[in-house]
Design brief:
The chain crosses the membrane at residues 101-121, 127-145, 152-171, 183-200, 220-241, 256-274, 286-307, 319-340, 352-374, 386-405, 426-445. This protein folds into 3 domains: 3-74, no CATH class; 97-274, no CATH class; 279-414, no CATH class. It is built from 16 helices and no strands. It has helices spanning 3-19, 26-45, 50-61, 64-74, 81-84, 91-121, 124-147, 151-170, 178-199, 207-244, 250-275, 277-307, 317-340, 349-379, 383-410, 416-444.
Length: 448
């Protein structure tokens, strides 16, 4: 690894450590990093090497706790007293924490009311197509408010959601048709990247902020899953208790609790990620180390099952769909693992396990492509086949290059920063592909 790359890796490790501290927000970490880089640059100009300049600059900035206290005093409006449970001496900090809580609750209720109105006013198929438009604008609004985005970025967010609404509602989809289902599946993916634009405060060109968004996505999913599980248990206990009293509250649960809980959880989960990053940061390495070996076993079992099939044409269509979903899961696991890893740690056993995961996924992807191309040649193209084929090509490119970089990292020829850089550079491809599917596939197949 060259000197500049090693310096960037040092700074990335420092940033990750600081960002996990409960009293420092993402915006504050950005400000601190700018100050650190200025110090490093000044010291390098004075003749110090990159490593030496970094160590001296960090030492000059003082201990993390001291910095946290200083930032807590100067930026008390960004602290969430209700969640971080840190003692504060400033009444302004408490007022700002209450204000943020009210904003989050207002957005959660607004998203829930929007979803409820959608169920009441739209047909079932239209609700499925528009569900992301009914909820995600409120999540984007939360980050736009929190990051204090510029008018230009705010306009880009509004225009993106408006264009999506026009496409999804003006296209003459056949009710329950294939292209309508495809649009309903891919619209949330495309709009999630609009949320990402709000999350990074409009600074989408920054590799660091893209990796922050990847990390946020994984942590948000963890919190959302926990909220869903907890809510499911609570609903089950409540229904059981009312049944013992010969009272049926299932209609209330279906009509009000589930829509409000689902929409509100999307906003609340994001809020928890912002406030409790240090908690999930401790969970992330555990999750990746548990699920990576299990996923490898599943992929190898699927490859063995494919080997027993006489012809790729005979492969069941449902199996192909499930394998596509598994590949998406592998991609998410790969991204989450990279975002949670210490960038300065040397290659270890888990990195080799992860290489096995990527190679296994690549093998499955190649088999999938062969099956799809054979089916298209034999039976012709359909919207589902074209979308699945395109998605597998997008994944294939990522997996091939990821294998190359992972092997180089294990052999000491590449730095871990190269792996991170590849994933952050490739991230917009997924959003672009999802948007292209929503816009182009229905047109190409006459909305059937």
């Amino acid at each position: 690894m060259d000197t500049e790359a090693q310096l960037q890796a040092h700074i990335a490790q420092w940033r990750g450590y600081v960002q996990r501290h409960r009293a420092i927000s993402v915006a504050d970490v950005d400000e601190m990093e700018d100050h650190l880089r200025e110090q490093v640059s000044t010291l390098q100009d004075a003749g110090l090497a990159g490593d030496e300049a970094f160590l001296v600059a960090v030492k000059r900035m003082g201990s993390l706790d001291a910095i946290s206290r200083e930032f807590a005093r100067e930026h008390s409006e960004r602290l969430w007293k209700q969640l971080v449970l840190l003692p504060t001496e400033s009444e302004d900090a408490e007022r700002q924490g209450n204000r943020e809580l009210l904003v989050v609750l207002a957005l959660a209720v607004s998203a829930a009311l929007s979803l409820k109105a959608g169920f009441a006013w739209l047909k079932d198929s239209a609700v499925a197509v528009n569900v992301s438009l009914l909820v995600l604008p409120f999540l984007a609004g939360y980050f736009a408010w929190k990051r204090q985005v510029t008018a230009k970025v705010a306009a880009a967010l509004v225009v993106s959601f408006v264009l999506a609404a026009l496409v999804l509602n003006l296209y003459p989809f056949e009710s329950g048709g294939t292209t309508e289902v495809i649009a309903a599946i891919h619209a949330p993916i495309a709009l999630w990247f609009v949320v990402g634009l709000a999350y990074v405060g409009g600074d989408w060109r920054s590799e660091r902020r893209r990796m922050d968004f990847i990390r946020f996505t994984g942590e948000w999913f963890v919190y959302l899953t926990l909220l869903a599980l907890g809510g499911g248990v609570l609903i089950g206990l409540t229904v059981g208790a009312f049944e013992t009293l010969d009272l049926r509250i299932e209609p209330v649960i279906e009509d009000w609790v589930l829509p409000f809980g689902a929409a509100g959880a999307v906003i609340v989960a994001a809020w928890l990620v912002e406030a409790k990053q240090n908690v999930v940061e401790n969970i992330a390495p555990v999750l990746t180390r548990v699920f990576t070996p299990l996923t490898i076993v599943m992929l190898l079992a699927l490859l063995a099952a494919f080997a027993t099939t006489r012809s790729v044409i005979d492969v069941d269509r449902t199996l192909l769909i499930l394998m596509d979903l598994i590949l998406v899961l592998v991609l998410g696991l790969l991204l989450y693992s990279i975002s949670a890893r210490d960038p300065l740690a040397p290659p270890g056993l888990f990195d080799r396990v992860q290489l096995v995961l990527v190679i296994s996924a690549l093998a499955v992807d190649v088999v999938m492509l062969a099956a799809m191309l054979t089916r298209i040649a034999e039976f012709g193209s359909t919207p589902n086949k074209v979308v699945a084929l395109g998605m597998n090509v997008v994944l294939l490119v990522n997996l091939v290059w990821s294998v190359r970089l992972q092997v180089g990292f294990l052999r000491g020829r590449k730095g871990f920063a190269d792996l991170e850089r590849w994933q952050t550079h490739y991230l917009p491809v997924y959003g672009s592909w999802a948007a292209a599917v929503v816009i182009a596939i229905p047109l190409a197949f006459d909305f059937v």
